[in-house]
Amino acid sequence: MEKFAADAKDVLGYTLQLQEDLQSRISNLEACLRRNNIRIHGIAEGEEGDNMSEFIEIFMKKELSLMDSNLGIQRCHRSLGPKPPLGANPRSIVIYFLE
C-alpha cells in the first residue's frame, strides 16, 4: 500500500508539472495569435452590411489614408456575444491580419 501511495504521489507530481508546462505553452500561443489582431470600436451594428471584409478594407483605407496598400486581412468579425439592444454600445470588430 505504501508503494502504491508513493507511486501515485510521483505520478501526480509529474502530471501537475506537465499541466503547468502545457498551460504556459498555451498562454504563449495565445499571445502570438493576438499579435496580428486589432479591434475597432464604435462602428454601429449592421453598418458593415453583408460583407464585413470589404467594409473593413474600405473603411481602413479611407480613414487611415492607405488607398494603395494591400492590408492583408485574413478575416474579420464582430466580437462574440449577443447583438446589443438599440441604443447600447455596439460590439467591437476584430480584424486578423496575415502579417
TrEMBL record:
InterPro entries: Transposase_22 (IPR004244). PANTHER family: L1 TRANSPOSABLE ELEMENT-RELATED. It comes from the Eukaryota. This is Uncharacterized protein. The gene is AL935274.1.
